[in-house]
Amino acid sequence: MIKRRKTRELEIGGLKIGGNSPISVQSMTNTDTRDSEATIKQIKQLEDAGCDIVRIAIPDINSANNIPEIKRLTTIPIIADIHFDYRLALQSVKNGIDALRINPGNIGGHERVKKVVSAAKEAKIPIRIGVNSGSLEKDLEQEYGISAKAITESALRQIKLFEKLGFYDIKISLKSSSVPLTIESYRKMASLVDYPFHLGITEAGTKFSGTIKSAIGIGTLLSEGIGDTIRVSLTDNPVEEVKVGIEILKSLGLRKGPTIISCPTCGRTEIDVIGIAKKVESEINKLKIKQNLTIAIMGCVVNGPGEAEEADIGIAGGKNQSLLFRKGKRLKTIQEKNIVEELIKEIKKDF
C-alpha cells in the first residue's frame, strides 16, 4: 500500500484534487480551440476514455470566447492553458473556466500575475503554477542553471506572491523532458510545501518512447506517495495519453479497473497469444468496467492456472485450443477460434 503525501485539497469543476481524493488523469486537446465543434468532440472522446480533467489551449481571444459554448456542451472539468498574455487568463475566468494553468516564466511580471490571481480568487477557481525547465526566469537560470534548484525556486517565488495575495488554491507542476531532473524537482518541492502536485514528463515523445519515460518518471514519484493528478504527454492522439495514465495508476493499485496479465510467448506457445491478448484488451475497453478485475492470457499450461491463480478469470493455451479458468478452477476447454468470444462471455457474467 502506497502512503501518499499529505496535501491541501482543492476543487476543479466539482472534482476534488489532493487531500484524500483519488489521483486524477488529465489530458489536453490538440484541436484549435476556436473550432468549438472539433474541441467538444475531442473532449467527449477523452472523457469516454476515462479522462478526469481536460486542458485546452487559449492562444488568443477567440479561443477564450469559445469557453462558454465548450462548457455548455461538455461535463468534464476544463482548464485554460495560458502563455504570454495575462489578459487571456482574465477573459477565460470571465467566461467560466474551471481552473487556470499559467507559466510564471512567461506570463509577464508580478503585476500581471496579481491581476490573474485576483480574478481567480473572486471566481473561486484554482491556478496551476506550471514551471517548465525550458522557460525558467532568466535570473534563476543564470544563477542555478537548468536544475532542480532553479525549477523549485521559480515555483516558490510565485507561491510566495500568491500567498501574499491571500490565494491558496494552488496546484504545482515542475516539468522537464529529463526524467531524472523532473523526479529530483518534485522530491525537493515535496519537502517544502503541502500544495497538491500535477505530475508529468513534458515533451516525452512518441507513444512508444513517451510511454516509457512517463511510466518511469510519473510511476517513480507516485510509488513514493508524491502526486495528486497526472498527465502523460505523448506525440499522439490525446486518448492514448489517458489510456497510459490509467494503466500507470492501475499498475500501482491507485485506480480501479480491469488489468490484463499475459505471458510474453515462447517456443511452447501453440496459440496466437499476441493476437488474442490484443483482441481481449479491445473488447474489455468497450465494457467500461470500473471494478478491479484481473484477466490472464497465458500461452501454455506452464503459465496457466498455476502461475496466474491470482487472476479472476483467464485462459491457458494448448494445441489450437485453450483452457478457460476462474480463480484457478478449470471450467472448460475452448477451440482457439472461440477463445475471445468465450472469455468475454464469461467476464460479462460478473458485470
Question: Could you characterize the architecture of this molecule?
Answer:
This protein has 351 residues and is an alpha/beta fold. The chain has helices at 36-48, 61-64, 67-72, 86-94, 110-123, 138-144, 148-164, 179-190, 207-223, 238-251, 273-287, 339-348, and strands at residues 9-12, 15-18, 24-28, 53-57, 78-82, 99-102, 127-132, 170-175, 198-199, 229-231, 258-262, 293-298, 313-318, 321-326, 329-335. The strands form three sheets. Strands 8-7-6-5-4-3-10-9 form an eight-stranded parallel beta sheet.
Structural class: alpha/beta
Question: Could you give the distance between the termini?
Answer: 27 Å
Content of β-strand:
15-25%
Fraction of helical residues: 25-40%
Mean pLDDT: 92
Keyphrases for this structure?
351 residues, five-stranded mixed beta sheet, eight-stranded parallel beta sheet, alpha/beta, 12 helices
Set out the fold topology.
Layout (H helix, E strand, L loop, with lengths): L8 E4 L2 E4 L5 E5 L7 H13 L4 E5 L3 H4 L2 H6 L5 E5 L3 H9 L4 E4 L7 H14 L3 E6 L5 H7 L3 H17 L5 E6 L3 H12 L7 E2 L7 H17 L5 E3 L6 H14 L6 E5 L10 H15 L5 E6 L14 E6 L2 E6 L2 E7 L3 H10 L3
Parallel strand pairs: 3-4, 3-10, 4-5, 5-6, 6-7, 7-8, 9-10, 11-12, 12-13
Antiparallel strand pairs: 1-2, 13-14, 14-15
Helix pairs in contact: 4-5, 6-7, 7-8, 8-9, 9-10, 11-12
Brief summary of the model shown:
The chain has 351 residues and is α/β, with parallel strands linked by helices.
